[in-house]
Amino acid sequence: MKKIAVLLFIAIFASGCATFPTQQVKSIWPQPSSQVKWYWSNWQMLSSADEAIGVLKNLQQNFVEYAAGQPFKTFDVDKYGLRVKWEWTETSQTTEYVPTYGGSFFGSTYVPYYGGTNQTRTNTSQYAGAFVIPFAEVSDIWMAHVPGLPREYKWQISVSLGDKPIVNLRAPDEQTVRQLGNAIATLSREQGRILPRCLFGMTVFSLTPEQSAELVLSPGTGVLVVNVDVGGPAEKAGVLFLDVILEVDGQPVKNNEELNARSLNKKSVKFKILRRQKITDETGKTNLQNIEVFLSVNVG
Predict the structure, then answer these.
(1) For residue 27, is it within any domain?
(2) Of 81, 105, 214, 225, whose Cβ has the fewest other Cβ atoms within 10 Å?
(3) Which of 254, 260, 272 lies closest to 211 in space, CA to CA?
(4) Within this chain, do residues 29 and 148 fall inside the same structural domain, yes or no?
């Protein structure tokens, strides 16, 4: 899933490298991310393509390409696409030991001597980068906050272009990211693209056989919540990471397609959820126990 691929990209970029322990106990359950928080991206359509183009032009000094982080040198946008280029120079210094040789005669005897100095050399490298967002090819847009990112701009917007590489951008605040998303979504709609509707603001996967067995569920029962977007209907209703949604309005679900199909054209639905909860008994021992939870969730 592309959203998970973006998360991996962020994790490696934020840490500077990927580390691989020599011994690792593999869990059948996904682990929560401490590096990125996804936000519900309910994009609002602007009144016209001209307004959307104007928004992007006004914001061109307020966002950068995710990895490069450099100001844009050229910025060209029209109703068909956004085309950006940037350049930067990096300077580094290296110190080298430069030997010197010599000698002199003392009488008829030549006495050599050896020496040297440390000399600093400055190296300059030129770099350039670019990206293009053809609005007719935009397939999805996400936004996130990366609080641990060692950069000034910690808010992210990711633009999916089908089979092409995802364009990742960074901005200083949530408002700028939402303005960018609204403008790009509007221009994509003007080109005939209908972006996926985010009903609940969460990501779900079908359960694996190992997960079903641990929960004592029949194979093909329920979907596992692996992410809950900040500010989305699911978070507001109380859905939690690693909840298992068993039913929607009394109908069983086993994948994301069924979850959406049972929720379309409704203002709200009722989730039947299986939740693993830590229970402490009278002896002080803590165990995981499955409990059933029923939540009413608005449909975005």
Answers:
(1) yes
(2) 105
(3) 254
(4) yes
**C-alpha to C-alpha distances, 154 to 37, 68, 148, 157, nearest whole angstrom:** 11, 13, 8, 10
Asked if residue 138 and residue 286 are part of one domain, the reply reads no
Within a domain: 94: no
Is a pLDDT exceeding 80 seen at residue 107?
no
Ranges of beta strands (E only) in the chain are: 37-39, 64-65, 74-77, 81-106, 109-134, 140-145, 155-161, 164-171, 202-206, 223-228, 244-248, 251-252, 268-280, 286-298
- Pairing of β 268-280 and β 244-248: antiparallel
In a domain, 63, yes or no: yes
Nearest residue to 33 via CA among 178, 206, 167, 149: 149
Residue 118 to residue 166: CA distance in whole angstroms: 46
Q: Which domain holds residue 23?
A: 2-89+126-190
- pLDDT at position 280 is 79
pLDDT tens digits, 200-255 = 999 999 999 999 999 999 999 999 999 999 999 999 999 999 999 999 999 999 99
Secondary structure class of 194 (helix, strand, coil): coil
Domain boundary residue among 161, 190, 219? Answer: 190
**CB distance 124 to 94 below 8 Å:** no
Residue 14 has pLDDT above 70, yes or no: no
Tell which phi-psi region holds residue 220, choosing left (phi > 0), alpha (psi between -120 and 50) or beta.
Answer: left
The C-alpha atoms of residue 109 and residue 44 are separated, in whole angstroms, by 91
Measured CA to CA, the distance from residue 140 to residue 74 in angstroms comes to 25
